[in-house]
Amino acid sequence: MLGNYLIGLREGLEASLVVCILVAYLVKTGRRDALRPVWLGIAAACAISLGFGAALEFGSQELTFEAQEALGGSLSILAVGLVTWMVFWMRRTARHLKSELHGKLDAALQMGTGALVATALLAVGREGLETALFVWASVRASGEGSATPLAGVLLGLATAVVLGWLFYRGALRINLARFFTWTGAMLVVVAAGVLAYGVHDLQEARFLGGLSTKAFDISSAVPPDSWYGTLLKGVFNFQPDPTVLQLVVWLLYLGVTMTFFLAPRRDASARKPSPTAA
Fold first, then answer.
1. CA angle at residue 140 from 137 to 144, to 5 degrees?
2. pTM attached to this predicted model
3. What pLDDT digit, counting tens, does each position of 247-270 carry?
């Protein structure tokens, strides 16, 4: 549940910040007449995201077992790719997100109502689609067969909405760059588990080999149905008997991604050569 809560919080807060920036800018510049098209775009983005999630959940149920595993594995890997790109992008642009959105909104105001709707739709819709895909993949990976993962996501989204409202009202101020760095690092750990589970799905679909080659089996020490086994599964998508390929993919992804993600960033000014004396 904690892993899914983190997904809902992280993605929901990004969307909440986008909405706050758009609405606050229109109010501050005296363009309240443009609020309606922006809210229409936001509502459309939410509806599309919910529809996409429902299509993933119910559409896959009509497929054969191997087709379900192949689809689940492929989409899990795609979800991990999108989330990985997202955490790096947000770490790089968190400090400049406001000015970037202001520029897009200024251009949309000059173009008319349709452009305003499209701007809000694209800004929020991207977060919504990423969330729907990664949540679906994470819930499949957790394999709990209950409403707990969905409850975690909803709690995360609700927390994000409250935080977004507090940001808008000026009652809460935090270092967004630091916040997205820490939550991004935790999300990379969750993504590593989803990636390993996606590989397992492709092995069960007979798209990849090595299903019977286990790296280790500690099911007796960490029973999947125990409280601590369930906790590890829900938070980290831990599997007590992974295949060799799953373990290799998990280690490579986590090691490489975390190394680059936590590496100190160099300022652009530091990379510029200093002028030589005349």
1. 140
2. 0.71
3. 999 999 999 999 998 887 665 444
